[in-house]
Write a structure and sequence with these properties.
The complex is a heterodimer of chains A (566) and B (428). With 566 residues, chain A is α/β, with parallel strands linked by helices. Chain A has two domains: 103 residues, Urease, subunit C, domain 1 (Roll), CATH 2.30.40.10; 312 residues, no CATH class. Chain A has 17 helices and 24 strands. In chain A, β21 and β22 form a beta hairpin. Chain B has 428 residues and is of the alpha/beta class. In chain B, the strands form five sheets. A nine-stranded mixed sheet of chain B has the order 5-4-20-19-18-6-7-16-17. In chain B, strands 11-10-9-14-15 form a five-stranded parallel sheet. In chain B, α2 packs across α18, α10 packs across α11 and α10 runs parallel beside α13. Chain B has two domains: 206 residues, Rossmann fold (3-Layer(aba) Sandwich), CATH 3.40.50; 169 residues, 3-Layer(aba) Sandwich (Dimethylsulfoxide Reductase, domain 2). The chains are: A alpha/beta (566), B alpha/beta (428). Chains A and B meet through α1, α3, α4, α11 and β16 of A and α3, α4, β8, α5 and α14 of B. β16 of chain A pairs parallel with β8 of chain B, so a sheet runs across the interface. The structure holds iron/sulfur cluster (SF4) and zinc ion. The site of zinc ion has 9 residues of chain A, from β7.
Amino acid sequence: MPGILIRNAFVIDPLSGVKGEVMDIAIRDGKIVEEASTDAVVIDAARCLTLPGGIDSHSHVCGTKVNFGRYMSPEDMRAGRTARKGVMHVTSGYSVPTTFGNSYRYSTMGYTTILEGAMAPLEARHTHEEFTATPHQDMLANTLFDGNWSIMEAVKEKDVKRAAAVVAWTLSAVKGFAIKLTNPGGTEAWGWGGDVNSIHDQVPHFGVTPAEIIGTMIQANELLNLPHSVHLHCNNLGVPGNYQTTLETIGLVPDLNRDRQSLYLTHVQFHSYGGSTWRDICSKSEDVARAVNNTPQVVMDMGQIMFGRTTTMTADGPMEFKLYMLHHNKWSNHDVELETGSGITPVYYGRKSLVNCVMWSIGLELALLAKNPWQCLLSTDNPNGAPFVKYPEIIALLMSRRFRENERKMIDPRTEHFVPLFAIERELDWYEIAVMTRAAQAKALGITRIGKGYLAPGAEADVAIFPLKPDEIDPSVDYQQVMAGFSRTRYTIKRGRVVARDGEVVVEGANSTIWTRANVPPAYDMSSDPEFTKKFEQYYTVRMRNYPVQDIYLPRGVRIDTEASL
Amino acid sequence: MKIEDVVCPFCGCLCDDLVVQVEGNRVVNVENGCTLANEKFMGDHRLETPIRRSGKKWERISYDEAIAETAGILLDADRPLLYGWSGTYGEAQTIGVHLAEVLGAVIDNTSTVCHGPSIMAIQEVGHPGCTLGQIKNRADVVIYWAANPIEAHPRHMSRYTTFADGFFVKNAFRERKVIVVDVRETDSSQIADEFVKVNPGGDYAILSALRAIVRGKRDIIPPNVEGVSREQLFRVAEICMAAKFGAIFFGVGLTMASGKYKNIRNAIELTEELNRHTKFTISPMRGHWNVYGSNEVFTWITGYPYAVDFARGIAFYNPGETTSVDILRRGECDACLVVASDPGAHFPRACAEHLARIPTIQIDPHVNATTHLSQIQIPVAVTGIDAEGTAYRMDGVPLRTRKLFQGSHPDDLEVLEKIYAIVREAKG
Ligand code: SF4
Ligand SMILES: [Zn+2]
């Protein structure tokens, strides 16, 4: 391959300390290099904004529940259809696009890496099959441990090392990337139709609390030296007054890692509600943002909602049932034996719904009130808050107070009494947006070690060039242009190849799947632990030998090895 | 050679604990399997080479010839149909969908004649379900509705329900109540704690009555509903509401009875209603071992579980219009590729007759009813015996079937990839 030389790029590369410089970027053999080869293809970036490839650190795009969202929603499939064109397959879907739909749309927005937010270990093979059919992004899978029986038993025994050993075995068996806890304890309670309502509630039968599960798993995660921290979907999602739960949870987090956070809190918008009912729900973004500002060992993502139709889907089965009881839309549920749950229901977020307007405000407030952009990442919990194609609009809202004021006129006029949004003057700049959409993700996920999220020599050549000239436009005023610019790159380069141009994918993709293997001493190898294997044989409906995901499911697997401190 | 933990490629239970004894390229013994499994592994009499109809006789042809001719027929067709898929593995289904895309064909799977109506109901109201282990470990009430597992899914009861001891249900046989609802007595109804015998076509009314009772409207229930006494309905509703975890399984008896998808919708809504009181789930008893996999694969690529029409470039789905039975009945289809299923045995007569009139090609290891309607048959390896790949159990759990020996036939994927390559080349 001759390589690429990008000339005249307006580069923001936060991890390398580049805050907006016009420079050249040389690419060879899939990597950023010091100097391009003489036969390199030259791309004139014409002072356009050039960033590392986008990284989504929490999105639902592949696996059992995502596919069920498609399966049950022909109306959503009809809402976004494209025909086969060039190398592009047919796509369907608006809020839950088909795998190729997700991949092309992300790619044309400059995204080159996506973390699937929730993979049930038992159904991991499915997630990996869909990863392969999402060819333009490198994929990672958060692996669910929230209702894992062996974990809860270890927590009960206060045996952090055993919890770590179970995690190590499972991640390596299912080719997962990180520990995900979704409503810890709540998904097990949902096995009986119940839930937990605070971090100190007991999980039925297991006699442990969410706080204990979270605390143990944070410790276990660090014993295994995993690249990412525990990735937490807090208890009480979507419940008025839940900000207390969120604050209590943040209060639990020790600072155990020099290089990154010790806990990643996902879609915090859904966890920052005051009030006690849907009538008096209000924003507690100030309290939550303050806690995050004072707790450098946590990172959050926004979980912004945007107005319109979407599909909610999460491992949080009891929450989806509550949502169903509220809206009486169609509802699916899928509990996974010994591990977790999940649920799906479509929603419509309306500008005329005060509750929805409050939610909309909270997400933006979190981003505007978080002092450190490295601690607040841009997300919609795709597609729960909105499909990811809304990211450019969110960026524009964060960069332009004028845009926010215009929106204010369109929403329920009572909103301003329940939220601080319109008193906030802050407008984010290009640099902060670059942090919140790629650099901070790479750091939080711990994947800078494999060359993700920056553009210095040695990095993976994942680059996005946007039709936006930072010297010429004022995002505060030209927010429409900002939105359009972030919607389709001029060029998306993935591992040194131009994969998308001006909104069209131009080559067939060849992604990687990134997973983690923590090497443990033999005494902690669960595959030969009598109790663990016996449990397996007795209670799972799949034989232990048939459970691990075979290598063939990861045609281009990238394994991150760690040495466990056990 | 003894191979353990073998996945059975026969029914939707996808049992993965078989022990298979292989000698050369022949299975000589199967342990743990039911009679259906034994028949699948041991009674495997293959067609040896591709064959083509020539007048009243069959002639043997080479794979290359058969593949080239198949591609030619598909390329010539105006309205090709690619049907079947439930008996092959996911990777082959994937190529099937891409082939349909390039051809502008209709692709459909066997759901069209089994749980298609269940899918339509789910698309209206959703599906509260779970994996089978959740039921094994927790359920104290199990209902089989218009399903006879002993005959169609012989190990369903022993692996997942009636006789399967679990974590919270230590002695399943004693602690778990089994209710069977059906229009006739069956082997399964005989071991039920409660057998509800419904008049044919009466399921919808029974479901509605149960929903009313669960909603607290006992007084509107007449003394007898479709052959079932009010007392029994009250009793059944009480058992359900007193359950800690209840699970309904329904069979094609419910999807294909009068009322069709409305029956399923009603059953799902009953399940939702019960969830306001306790925990309840509902699951279709999927028949072919990987029919659910074909729904999954179709869905992530096209957005729809079956009956996908690419004629207009985009993926279009409208059961009743784009379903294969309807396309054949209207005489629209002018070439058909059948993969890993036997429409000759399962389709209405008019459809089978149409298949015999047009060039029909079958990719299948065995001579079956469809062979008699086909122009060409291409034999392949049997997935789960001499080919391996992904399959989805009836509850969505994906497993990888094993390849037990190296046989002499190519597998579905190899044959389909070659057809796809020719078609892509021709379409530019
Ligand atoms: S129940 Fe079904 S999957 Fe299990 S052994 Fe019998 S035929 Fe095979
Ligand atoms: Zn999520």
